[in-house]
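3.2 Worked example (two chains)
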Amino acid sequence: MSTIDVRADELAPSQPRTHDTAPLTPPSPAFDFDVAIVGLGYVGLPTALAYHASGSRVLALDVSPRRLRTIAARGADLIDTDRERLDTALRTPAAFRLTSDTAELSRAAAIIVCVPTPVDHQQVPDLAPLRAACATVVAAARPGQLVMLTSTTYVGCTHDLVEAPLRERGFEIGRDVFVTFSAERIDPGNIGFAQEVVPRVVGGATPQCEEEGARLLARYAARVHRVSSLATAEMTKLLENTFRAVNIALANEFADICGALDVPVTEVIEAASTKPYGFMAFYPGPGVGGHCIPCDPHYLLWQLKALHVDAGVITEAMTRIAARPRRVVDRIRDVLGRAGKGTLGARVLVVGVTYKPDVADLRESPALEIIDHLIDVGAEVQYVDTHAPHIHLDSGRERDSLPDPAAFHPDIVLVHTRHHDADLAWLDGDAVVVDGTYRSSDIAGRVLL
């Protein structure tokens, strides 16, 4: 395969980190790189940059030449601090190598797999990217290496896709090679929680694997929390995101209840948040997107279904989350009807289509499904989003962000995602505004979902 190299003239400064695990082991002279990152998406690239900033020699691998070109051109969607890190890293080829050549994985002391784990349109886990990545890593493995899975998946996946195949190759796990799991905890676009600050949970196939995994994470993480097994670490991540999914579904339900009772739901949530214990604020919205919450709980439900284990609360929560975009469409049709307008031919403008503010990520964004459904019922739909200049819908339809939304003269506006730099001064009061964020109180005359 071809590789992409980056020119450099200086090394990034090494920043000392505090941690609650064993002291760092020095870089192994048997390897050219301290760590290889497989997959350079919203998780892998920031992870690679964090290791580079800590002084590690990083092999950054992605099988997509297009993605590598985007990174090399400094066009990746990153928070400002990671942009600065990328700029430094791209000037240090001895310590940060971009490549698409999987054969180079044998040059790294540790390999971290950071590929996506999506679900299909029937919410069935799509393990193809992870299976392919793990098979590549297993084939390239050599004695002395550590393999760490960070992709969220089902309980037992690290054993099935990494540990067992390595054993079949003749490796003794915990002596020849080391197998660990430590799910990522990156929140794209959130500058309030730097990677170094968020604790990492790690489990190993053996106690020695756990020890080596903790040492690797301690190169940049301020705290490493060890658990007793791979399965415990895998289940921890599933609990984290299932917890969020269930509570978001509850918040959406409370929004509907409050709407029926004419009670301001955001005021209720803020009031409840004054309780210093036993409550955590979750806010309603037009749906759930991104690489975690709409997908991860389905890996658990998929596994439990095969075991005939009931998970009624989780199942209902995910059903409600999946139904939320259609609920938004129904609300828009209702609001149009109350204004004396039908959906057929109505001009609908969606403000913001990425799944969360201030990121360019469209994965699982409810806006895409909402737009498709609105078009299906006869509406003329356009959108505006400076973070997403072009979208491709599941139906095959495509749209470009409007350069002048006011010129569209919408009948109704859905505020789906409000970026901090979004200019809504063009809203002149003629169009009805449906606030899908529930928090755009500065928009006069808005109605809530």
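3.2.1 Second chain
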Amino acid sequence: MQDSFVDRMNTTEIRATAGLSLVFAFRMLGMFMVLPVLATYGLELQGATPALIGLAIGAYGLTQAVFQIPCGILSDRIGRLPIIYAGLIIFALGAVVSACSESIWGVIAGRILQGAGAISAAIMALLSDLTREQHRTRAMAAMGLSIGLSFAAAMILGPLLTHAFGLSGLFWATMLMALLGLIIIRFMPKTQKHEHRETVINRELLGKTLKNPDLLRINLGIFALHAVLMASFVALPLALVEQGGLSREHHWLVYLGTLVLGFISMVPFIIYGEKKRQMKRVLLGAISLLLFCEVFFWLFAHSLWLLIFGMLLFFTTFNLLEASLPSLISKVSPAGSKGTAMGIYATSQFLGAALGGILGGWLYQQSGAEAVFLLCTGVSAFWLYQARSMTEPPYVTSARFELPEQQTNLQNISVQLLSLPGVTEVSIVEQESALYVKFDSHQVSWSQLQATLHRS
């Protein structure tokens, strides 16, 4: 049974979803745009080596990982907007430092500063504050789509901007994106801060969430995926030039073609996994394909057309995994802990990006591209080994409801909701005067849950 809502998203919710999705996308562009160009153009910087190029690629992720959870918790204490404003200003300053630098160390310093403005959790929490419960999933999905589109745009815009304006021009562009983000935030609708455990990081739940074996497996997955991504893009741009004979000015054409075809290719697998409830099969298949891609690069990186074919497979599996893993967090995390789980997930993602860039650059300098692809092969194989033991995830979604006023029999509420078909978990948080429910939307609707709650 699919839920249907009489009301649609109002103007405030549409403005909030569109604006915050743009701000989030601008941030991700800052991380991704250097991927296709830093390995090739960065070697012109003073003191540049492949190892330091890898450090510059991974430095952003390192400080993002360090500040992700603290900034999320701080936004609950002092408010969302101060954290978001400060984060965008720090991001812009980091871009200026990188743009004005003629040495690799200056670029590294700028990237470290950019990553310190970790505002992902604050943006997600603000979007939660500005949307009603029945529209929040839709708003979060729109933000997730903006992340995927920003990755695709970055892989194409990065080479084009760098070819036209140099690396400094690329960083000036990211500074302008931060300023646009500040303008968008300035005109966000006013709202009250709400306690909402599905979108904010709760310190009390951190320990329990970190020990959850299903969530640990997913966190390992996003760590491995971004480690492989960053390490691969230390070696792949250089392989396209040195082994494939493709000038760096034309790399954007390869990325455009392989990204578009890769995105189209992954859609049927997402639909199959969700509709047929076979996400474990889809996930294991995608990790296996990622492993195959890295072995393929290791064996055939000497041919341009084989490199392009391998990149098509790589982008197909990367897009598939990047879209699937967050949905698994939503399915697996206990009721009322999704915000905390997503904070740890994002930290794992950025840690993987940092380690992948740093190790990839060091290995390339020591032993060349083949060593980098072997590293990625090992990481992919370990992830596949770990993922084999996962169980089929529950196909449930979550919702938050305000407790009725003057309601004293909380136990009765839980019993009534759990008696409904498709309801798997109920968590009551008296401090928030709210409860969190996990349910199968094919069996019970949001409005049915609400009706049952008010009858209890």
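3.3 Remarks
The domain at 397-455 is CATH 3.30.70.100 (Alpha-Beta Plaits).
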